[in-house]
Request: fold
Amino acid sequence: MSRQPDRVTFTLPEWLVEYAECWRPSGLAEERMRFVIGASERNVREKTGGPFAAAVFEHESGAMVALGVNLVVSQQSSVLQAEMVALMLAQQRLHTYDLGVAGIPSHELVTSCEPCAMCLGAIPWSGVRYLVAGAAGADAGSIGFDEGVKPENWIREHESRGIRVQTGVCREDARAVLRLYRQTGGCIYNSKKS
Amino acid sequence: MSRQPDRVTFTLPEWLVEYAECWRPSGLAEERMRFVIGASERNVREKTGGPFAAAVFEHESGAMVALGVNLVVSQQSSVLQAEMVALMLAQQRLHTYDLGVAGIPSHELVTSCEPCAMCLGAIPWSGVRYLVAGAAGADAGSIGFDEGVKPENWIREHESRGIRVQTGVCREDARAVLRLYRQTGGCIYNSKKS
Reply:
């Protein structure tokens, strides 16, 4: 096989960078969530990925640090789920692997759907201190995604690591995007067991 | 805040690309593991990251598709643990988000230490059909890393998703690298609770 490349790059859809510009800071969880759900819907309509979006905000001010969407199929990488994209972008922008480090504002991850097992595991490492989720994991499961095995007590475990968790914010709006994805024939990208 | 960038890039250490060139395909799990552990040790000595490495091999032939090391501190990204780097590299090289897709060889992830909760969650999405681990999660915990909450029955759950799991391969060699990291003052990069 040819020499291993010395870097990995992934690119965001052009519309996403423009869309992120439209955010006006808000202290309300519902407003942050609606903006994130709007990105998930746009991702479906633009056919740039799965029906999921996530953003990192400064918890107090509502300033948005990074907005990610699911890029699994478009970038051919199973890692590039919305929460992972948002966390990688936020850490790149702030030049820190710990968004909870002293001396910077506390950060909040707002995700249009409860994180899968991978993204759940990524959250404590990332340093965010707040997690706000829209649709339930079962809602993603109902359109065919295999969210993996999550600890039953994941909310309590995250809270014990200093992460406040809020679920079900604008759940119906988020579910509507999942349904739209299924109705428009979106790819359910679980690994195919042969 | 300035405009959100339109891409994320991370770079591998120069030594890693050279080291990967030295692999000669082997059918033995122990030989694959020793090569991976060698990369983890080199990562510590070169001070390019944490004491962990992982590689994706073609399971049958032993050809190596991608070799990753932990880059959390050097690239300032909590996502860039060794398994994630190896999976992203492998999928980028093969242009697929599913390393288990029909028509290509079955793939195996060999990791110098049992995956943390994030990396465990990433494995079913990735399409690898075999997981081989060296040191135990408790070994990483013993030098201070918080591996997160893993389902108690994670091996059975992965097997039920068609992933064969083998643990404890060359465990003592892998543990020695963890000890070396601690002895040389390596950064334990858990998020700091303030």
